[in-house]
Amino acid sequence: RPRALSGIQPTAGSFHLGNYLGAIRQYVALQETHDAFYMVVDLHAITVPQDPAELRANTRLAAAQLLAAGLDPERCTLFIQSHVPEHAQLGWIMNCLTGFGEASRMTQFKDKSAKQGADRATVGLFTYPILQVADILLYQADAVPVGEDQRQHIELTRDLAERFNGRFGRTFTVPAPHIVKEVAKIYDLQDPTIKMSKSASTPKGLINLLDEPKATAKKVRSAVTDTDTVIRFDSVEKPGISNLLTIYSTLTGTTVTELEQKYEGKGYGALKTDLADVMVEFVTPFRTRTQEYLDDPETLDSILAKGAEKARAVAAETLAAAFDRVGFLPAK
Ligand code: ATP
Ligand code: MG
């Protein structure tokens, strides 16, 4: 089976709808076709300041949500990044293969450091894409399910895999991004020209999966659309309606064309009311399942311990090969 690998940050507490539709749904699907590795990336989380107790709680919460979303520890390897020290170790090697200018071109860093104030951004935030390279290459991943915002980092991963292989001999699989076009970028409900993000400008535009379902329904009903009345997919002229159609379509398995027909002659209000119901039906059991995992920390921790063990076996083998290729003297 081909390998899949992806990671998600534990920083915000609740995952948002963009995380779910853009990434986590693909994690679930790829369990069927791939030897899949998924991790909560706590090493990436500390690229911005974290409260230690909160980070620990959010890391558990992230794992619980991934299980609630449908990751099955019998069919994939779910683990916490810091449980596998090889990530940081291969990360160092990758740092030493990356040009300073090359790293400086990463747009995620530019965006995130601009938000923080350039003086406060850490070197860790600057080099996090390079740690991500190591995350992926350690597992010899073929496919990396992510949203559109991660495409540039996967390109960097491919470049570094080829660079290492070219310089030291074939060591790493060159991965490809697994980006599902329709859901690659879910937009903010209040500003449908920017991506939905946990660092959104206004919380009204951000659907957190663990929010009160009533509050979520309200956010959907007050989504920004346009002054036209026709329900039609057109991401340029009608970004708000198109975003709602994408969300509706993906959550229900109905095509956008079918939805356009269903809502022909009806107003935006009808679409929003129905989508609010769809959303409530989706988040309600998700919240319950997440809570069940949180209420049973022993089971959760044992899933994560087994996951780390499986992950380490693979990661250690790759790291040993990389150390050897680079010319490190083996410890006897
Ligand atoms: P940040 O804004 O701090 O980067 P985030 O909201 O992007 O946070 P991440 O943990 O960085 O959350 O992303 C986890 C996964 O979710 C990644 O694969 C990312 O590409 C995907 N993702 C995030 N936001 C969206 C979105 N709006 N639409 C589709 N996919 C998304
Ligand atoms: Mg992101």
Helical residues, percent: 40-55%
Number of strands: 5
Q: Structural class, from secondary structure content?
A: mainly alpha
Beta-strand content estimate: 5-15%
Question: What general outline do the C-alpha atoms trace?
Answer: globular
- Output the strand order for the largest sheet: 1-2-3
Question: Could you name the key traits of this structure?
Answer:
single chain, 332 residues, mainly alpha, 3-stranded parallel β-sheet, two-stranded parallel sheet, 13 helices, 5 strands, 7% strand, binds adenosine-5'-triphosphate, binds magnesium ion, EC 6.1.1.2, Tryptophan--tRNA ligase, ligase
Topology:
Layout: E1 3-8, H1 17-30, E2 35-40, H2 42-45, H3 52-68, E3 76-80, H4 86-95, H5 100-104, H6 107-116, H7 123-137, E4 143-145, H8 151-168, E5 176-178, H9 213-221, H10 239-252, H11 256-262, H12 268-294, H13 297-326
Parallel strand pairs: 1-2, 2-3, 4-5
Helix pairs in contact: 3-12, 4-7, 4-13, 7-8, 9-12, 10-12
This protein binds adenosine-5'-triphosphate (ATP) and magnesium ion.
Task: Describe the protein's architecture and organization.
This is Tryptophan--tRNA ligase. It comes from Streptomyces achmelvichensis. Keywords: Ligase. Its EC number is 6.1.1.2. With 332 residues, this protein is mainly α. The chain is built from 13 helices and 5 strands. The strands form 2 sheets. It has a 3-stranded parallel sheet. It has a two-stranded parallel ribbon with strand order 4-5. Helix 7 (123-137) packs across helix 8 (151-168). The longest helix has 30 residues, at 297-326. It is globular, with a radius of gyration of 21 Å. Bound molecules: adenosine-5'-triphosphate (ATP) and magnesium ion (MG). Adenosine-5'-triphosphate binds next to helix 1.
